[in-house]
Amino acid sequence: MELFKVYPLFPLNFVKAKGAHLWTDTGEQYLDLYGGHAVISIGHSHPTYVKKVSQQLADIGFYSNSVQIPIQEQLAKKLGELSGYEDFTLFMCNSGAEANENAIKLASFHTGKKKIICFTKAFHGRTAAAVAATDNKKIIAPVNETDNFLFLPFNNHQSLEEAFKNHDIAAVIIEGIQGVGGVQIPEPSFLQNIQSLCNENDAIFICDEIQSGFGRTGQFFAHQHAGVKPDIITVAKGMGNGFPVGGVLISPKIEAQFGMLGTTFGGNHLACAAALSVLEVIETEQLMQNATLMGDYLVNALKDLPGIKEIRYQGLMIGIELNEPCAEFRKALLNNYHILTGNASCANTLRILPTLNISTKELDEFIMAFKELAKLTVLS
Ligand SMILES: Cc1ncc(COP(=O)(O)O)c(C=O)c1O
Fold first, then answer.
1. What percent of the chain has pLDDT over 70?
2. CA dist 135 to 6, 120, 243, 290, Å?
3. Which InterPro entries match (predicted)?
4. What domains, with CATH codes, occur in the chain?
5. Which of 40, 75, 155, 375 has minimal Cβ neighbours within 10 Å of its Cβ?
6. Mean of all residue pLDDT scores within the chain
């Protein structure tokens, strides 16, 4: 059997990883400034993570949600403490799309309504409701087409207010910072307006923190920079540092009922051990503070260089918009300097999502490469 070919692949086979570095089967070293789409939060193969997951596997790896799994409660408690959402409850699942699918379903169950507001350039995943809230027609199959999702222009107050006037809205879903869309940051006043309109209209405010959460922006969640409190927050990616895990944080105003949501693998012992170790390391190594410092360090070093139109960032969620498409530049970074970076749905934006414990020394490698390539007119 061959693989179903849906991914264009780099000719790289990584066999070892540590911190912000990866090594191929031929022993070549690479600097990872992308973390496999914002997944590697505390660094590849962090010793605390390896120890905790290995120990858990040796004890018990899995049993279903039909029995007590105390490590789920430990995780929920720690997540509440670190995020400031101690009064919320946690539903665990396995991926970002699944977290959003459950969040949308929950909002609809709770309100009894079905119209969902979402935004231009949004990406929320590939399952039925998550993909219907995603602004990319190419990945919406005919079976997923529905008029329950209203797409509005991002950061546009007027269209938001009109949509609430003209429709009975169940929920608004917005990313803490749009990732795939090219690191587009919602204005604080826009998030505040969403919160007020949801409260006034018995609608649920869902914030997708799958890429922007777990400390990446210097706060636990990106929306906390705007001082808002959503009703539902979705998490995945950095939550497990590579172990597949997702979660839905749910306001106390939404009541659980047996059978309302469910999953076989969600919340398994191994996933909880992985996520707990991530939280422990974020706390003990002060990685949120490091994300703020390192983000500022990198952006200060790059901001006046030629070839850059704009840098949008919060902490270590960084979008560098070039004056031209970034594909050649990314290729040169990879081939000439062994540096992995990401792209976005807008062709000119380079996405930089390093591990949260990245150092100035590692960022200097990228800054030097950037300056050299700018001189070589890979950038004009
Ligand atoms: C903001 C956001 N939401 C949801 C998802 C979907 O997550 P997953 O690929 O784990 O289903 C992604 C993935 O890139 C994302 O960036």
1. 99
2. 19, 6, 27, 32
3. Aminotrans_3, Aminotrans_3_PPA_site, Class-III_PLP-dep_AT, PyrdxlP-dep_Trfase, PyrdxlP-dep_Trfase_major, PyrdxlP-dep_Trfase_small
4. 14-46+286-375 (3.90.1150.10), 47-284 (3.40.640.10)
5. 375
6. 97
Which residue's alpha carbon is at the smallest distance from atom 3 of ligand 1? 124
pLDDT at 376: 74
pLDDT of 124 over the 60 cut? yes
Q: How far apart are CA 40 and CA 46, in angstroms?
A: 10
Residue 100 alpha carbon, nearest atom of ligand 1:
4
- Torsion over CA of 329, 331, 335 and 336, rounded to 10 degrees? -10
**Cα(124) to centroid of ligand 1, in Å?**
5
- Residue 217 near residue 177 (C-beta atoms within 8 A): yes
Beta strands in 9-63 (DSSP E): 14-18, 21-24, 29-32
Is the beta carbon of 232 within 6 A of some atom in ligand 1?
no
Cα 154 to chain centroid distance, Å, stands at: 18
- Kindly give the distance from the C-alpha atom of residue 154 to the centroid of ligand 1, in angstroms, as a whole number: 18
Residue 289 CB partners (closer than 8 Å, separation 6+): 218
